[in-house]
Task: structure prediction
Amino acid sequence: SGVRVPLSVLAALVNDGEGSGGGKDVSEHQAVRDVERDVLSINGRKVLGSIGYGAVVRQLADQLRSTLPMAGTLMVGPAAKVDLEFQALASKGGTKRKGGGVGEVAGMGVGESKGGGESDGEGEGEGESLYETFAKRILTAVNRTESGHRSFALVTLLCRNDALSVIVPDSSAAGPLCIDLCCGPINERGGGMGWGLCAAVSTTTVYTLWNMDMDQELAKISATYVHRLSLPLPVASSESLVRRGVMWDQLGSAGAVICSMHVAGEEEDEAD
Result:
């Protein structure tokens, strides 16, 4: 339980728009720094960021690759065409952004900005696989700079009172960067539907509310950041949706911050 505020509403309340507003840096360089000093949970499996950003990207890309159904298990359209496309997507050599054959079709639009797409292409090298591109976007979406910025914005909005208290992050109580992957339907703006890889990201940050003298803990505040990203695939998506590439609707209804508070001494009062 707690107060759930969509990112679109939060951005309007704190006058923070899309992009790198509010002083935060969501570049890949910042993502590298954040990830390497953090702990991740990928589909429930613990991954230490200390193994290196590149190693984390590869593990996440491998997990994305294994998330795709085996060829022939998705009954959409002509079976032969679906089999061929999945065989190409499931192989490392068939997922390059630049190239020929089915791989070129599968990589269409990733890292490009066409028709209102959110992709900016930052940090995406030539020949980078779809999985690696998507993995980097996922890590950018959930890193502490992005998630912590949004979480702290809501906490200060709800709890800040410079005359009575001080809000201090409790890094020791922070949860891992959680990433849950799946395949499924993707809603297209305007009512269309597609199909592709989806990533639900979340992380919890804890803050301590102290009195002005910093000698009495007043409350613990928990802020959970949640969001979703998707990568439409041409197997069962419209061309317009595929061309948008990796979709991170940064200020959309999919994203939110959920804030709850535990007042110090509350348990003792209830016990009495």
Notes: The first strand starts at residue 3 and ends at 6. Residues 144-159 form the longest helix (16 residues). Confidence is low (pLDDT under 50) at residues 18-24, 71-84, 90-124.
